[in-house]
Model the fold of this input.
Amino acid sequence: MKVYTGRGDEGMTDLRNMDRVSKASGRIEAYGTVDELNALVGTVRPTGHDDVDTQLREVQNHLHIVQADFANPEPDEDDPAVREEHVDQLEAWIDGHDDELDALESFILPSGADRGARLHHARAVARRAERRAVSFASEEAVNETAIVYLNRLSDALFTLARVVNKREGVREENPEY
Done:
């Protein structure tokens, strides 16, 4: 299979059902931002922490499913789709890591060890992906669970950033007002 086809040279792309749409459409913006997030998460691995690496690998697979979900305007029952169990998995990871962390009493600055800071960056991109998805969902039908997943993922990435920073011995900093 060739990497290039030339079919997108005029600003159009194919959806899963082979409908042609503008690359500037809200649907493409949404799953393109999820693609960016997936690539960013890939820059964090390996973190040096096996549990975090396993979770990030799973997140990358989930993000691939989000992209497939968003690229499909007419999903069938057996098509890839984000499900409640994906959201539940994120919540279980967050809850599991919370026991390791100090209670959050204030906002923190998104910084820290290299991988912790990259996870904070990924969290911000997850928020952007969620905003793009919400925007696209206001115009077209979308699997609402995928939007919930992106919302919860930003919380999970925030938690993982805190965990990595703590394990690396980096103290959290609070903003000054």
Strands lie at 12-14, 20-22. The chain has a mean pLDDT of 94. The longest helix spans residues 114-137.
